[in-house]
């Protein structure tokens, strides 16, 4: 059976499901109606959802009522006609749903779509109630980018792929070839640690990780970093600098002639402004690039990479033991754990 001939399953009338809803600055677990998927849509039972730093920032900022969360993995339990997956397929999804028609989408920048809808950020009043992964079920609308997940890949490895791992793939796409390169990774959180592993696997000669947290610096060595230092330490010349932290200036200063600086987008209010001398850029043939989000191909690449590298690196260390959904309000407001990602099993 082809994907376009996907089996259509129906949802029992008046069925409801648990979801974490942000109302103002408070998070509560509520029951929301379980929808019937329309053409091209997927209803997915969420097995594991991970807490991204942007989820904590969303709670701090408040806003219109909406279901939180954008990282997760689950199985298709109902599919509309023409949907991109079948019943029981195990899938992950990108954090944004693009229109596919605007100039940005046509130009290969769907992450900056003019009509972008964000998973885990759409107000309930829009009618897309189950739009976040911190719920027992999520409704993925037509146009949502998904990737199938092999059964042998555990939930903890797969869940962050839609956001964290795919964003790393986009950043390394912007960085260019890494074989033999000297790579600097600023920020050894979920993205930085993943980037260290991928850079190592792509043949980087050295990978230097910078982080203020000693435990994260130690973890970086477990993910391929040849050296890990605290901010302010003297840095050698590097060919590629990947910035996942709040300060890009030291990374720019460390670039050798012909080097590339890739700054990965963050919502953090602590992000420092970067002053760039255009003469320095020209004299040293430097390239500065920005990345915010990822394209569908990066999600596919992320799952393919994790499937290949799942036994090379200790990925499970990046995600804390999962808690029931009822614990989510606490997880979102307490300090982040040593592991870069906290996790919930929404159907517990």
Q: How many angstroms does the end-to-end distance come to?
A: 33 Å
- Rg calc: 20 Å
Query: Strand tally, please?
Result: 17
Task: Give the overall silhouette.
Answer: globular
User: How do the SSEs run, as a string of H and E?
Assistant: EEEHEEEHEEEHHEHEHEEHEHEHEHE
Q: Uncertain segments of ≥5 residues (pLDDT<50)?
A: 1-7
Can you put this structure into words, describing what you see?
- With 348 residues, the chain is of the alpha/beta class.
- The chain has 2 domains: 3-163 and 294-345, Alpha-Beta Complex (Quinone Oxidoreductase, Chain A, domain 1); 166-291, 3-Layer(aba) Sandwich (Rossmann fold).
- It is 24% helix and 28% strand.
- It contains 10 helices and 17 strands.
- The chain has helices at residues 53-61, 103-106, 155-158, 164-175, 190-201, 214-222, 249-254, 278-283, 296-309, 328-333, and strands at residues 16-23, 26-33, 42-51, 66-67, 71-79, 90-97, 117-118, 137-140, 144-148, 182-186, 206-210, 227-229, 238-243, 255-264, 287-291, 323-324, 342-345.
- The strands form 3 sheets. Strands 3, 5, 6, 7, 8, 9, 16 and 17 form an 8-stranded mixed sheet that branches. Strands 12-11-10-13-14-15 form a 6-stranded parallel sheet. Strands 2-1-4 form a 3-stranded antiparallel sheet, with no helix packed on it.
- Helix 4 crosses helix 5 (190-201) and helix 4 packs across helix 9.
- The protein is globular.
- The chain starts with 15 loop residues before the first strand and ends with a strand.
- Residues 1-7 have low confidence and may be disordered.
- Its cofactor is Zn(2+).
- Pfam families: ADH_N, ADH_zinc_N.
- Residues 191-305 form the Alcohol dehydrogenase-like C-terminal domain.
- Keywords: Metal-binding, NAD, Oxidoreductase, Zinc.
- GO terms for molecular function: alcohol dehydrogenase (NAD+) activity; zinc ion binding.
